[in-house]
Amino acid sequence: MLGASPSPDEPAVSHKHDNLLRAIFHDPISANIHWREIESLLAHLGADLEMLSGARIRVKLNGYEGILHRPHHGNTLGRQDIQHLREYLAHARATPSQIEAAKTK
Question: pTM for this structure?
Answer without folding.
Answer: 0.83
